[in-house]
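Module 6 notes. Inverse folding takes a fixed backbone as the condition and produces residue identities as the prediction. Think of it as a translation problem where the source language is geometry and the target language is the twenty amino acids. Below is one complete input and output pair. Work through it position by position during the lab.
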């Protein structure tokens, strides 16, 4: 049983690793890669996505640029984290695949409406494309199977400002629109992904399988690990986006809890900050995304403090990093041997 996936990206080193994992996972039918600006400007991201797919032997997967600028805020990119090209020290030959002419927002809408109840949208970038898709075609709200979002710093410091995670910081207005949309959202926050570390030892193991794939991973992550060492003091790198992709076909990696997550978008000081209304351990495990059962009137008084909206997401609160890293390394080795 495969899962049809659209991957919305800002590639970016960890986005590129998510693309590789998608192509190396038989459980995933990668319907398309859409791109916005974030880690690097969208044009660089489109080129990187095309070239990574060619590297993985999948030049057939469409790569579509979407909306190149955040809805309101000026663009903020992360060359210090992902390098000037967006893929660190790596170099890739230019893909010869035909250039897709479909707009990324239209690919998201078309795929979801053409395959109602089947498409999982994995959003690992600023949410600009997803927000515009919602505004252009609200029918995707009930047609999408699941939305998995990597974003937010809920109960930990941000990785971009002291309060905000990068994807929510770059486009907080888009994050607000998406989180309040009513789509069935699973949120994988920086709280969890900061501890999903690909170590130098993992990379050293990978390059023992000589291949352009492992060479790319080594060169891209060398830049990324140097950044993490300088910024966070450890010889490894958080592979946020591959972890989000893995939840599309291996949801048992995570334990989730329903909660309401709001995003600050009016304040210059705290733009992109996530504000949660923590519901507490689920009193019953709702089916999939049946959050309507959480009737706030039934809550105990101490739950109904000043701001207690009904849950809008299921947030990952635990993640089996060890099992995931082993899966990632094994699948990269398998891809390298193809
Ligand atoms: O905060 C980490 C997220 O922001 C990741 O998706 C990374 O690629 C950047 O987009
Ligand atoms: Ca990303």
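Target side of the pair, the amino acids:
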């Amino acid at each position: 049983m495969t899962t049809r996936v659209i991957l919305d990206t800002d590639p970016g080193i960890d986005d590129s690793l998510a693309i590789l994992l998608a192509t190396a996972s038989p459980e995933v039918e990668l319907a398309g890669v859409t791109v916005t600006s974030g880690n690097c400007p969208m044009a660089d991201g489109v080129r990187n996505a095309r070239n990574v797919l060619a590297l993985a032997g999948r030049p057939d997967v469409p790569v579509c640029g979407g909306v190149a600028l955040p809805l309101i805020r000026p663009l903020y990119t992360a060359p210090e984290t992902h390098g000037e090209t967006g893929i660190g020290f790596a170099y890739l030959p230019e893909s010869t695949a035909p250039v897709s002419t479909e707009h990324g927002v239209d690919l998201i809408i078309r795929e979801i409406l053409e395959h109602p109840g089947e498409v999982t949208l994995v959003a690992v970038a600023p949410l600009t494309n997803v927000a515009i898709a919602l505004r252009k075609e609200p029918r995707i709200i009930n047609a999408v199977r699941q939305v998995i979002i990597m974003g937010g710093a809920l109960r930990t410091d941000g990785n971009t400002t002291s309060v905000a995670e990068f994807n929510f910081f770059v486009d907080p207005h888009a994050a607000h629109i998406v989180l309040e949309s009513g789509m069935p959202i699973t949120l994988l926050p920086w709280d969890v992904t900061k501890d999903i570390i690909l170590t130098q030892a993992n990379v050293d193991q990978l390059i023992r399988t000589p291949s352009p794939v492992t060479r790319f991973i080594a060169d891209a992550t060398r830049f990324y690990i140097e950044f993490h060492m300088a910024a966070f003091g450890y010889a490894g790198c958080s592979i946020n986006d591959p972890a989000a992709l893995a939840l599309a076909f291996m949801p048992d990696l995570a334990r989730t809890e329903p909660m309401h997550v709001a995003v600050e978008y009016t304040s210059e000081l705290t733009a992109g900050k996530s504000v949660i209304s923590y519901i507490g351990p689920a009193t019953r495990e709702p089916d999939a995304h049946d959050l309507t059962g959480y009737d706030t009137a039934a809550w105990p008084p101490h739950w109904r403090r000043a701001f207690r909206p009904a849950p809008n997401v299921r947030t990952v609160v635990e993640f089996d990093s060890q099992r995931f890293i082993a899966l990632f390394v094994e699948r990269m080795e398998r891809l390298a041997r193809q």
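Reference fact for the lab report: The first helix runs from residue 13 to 23.
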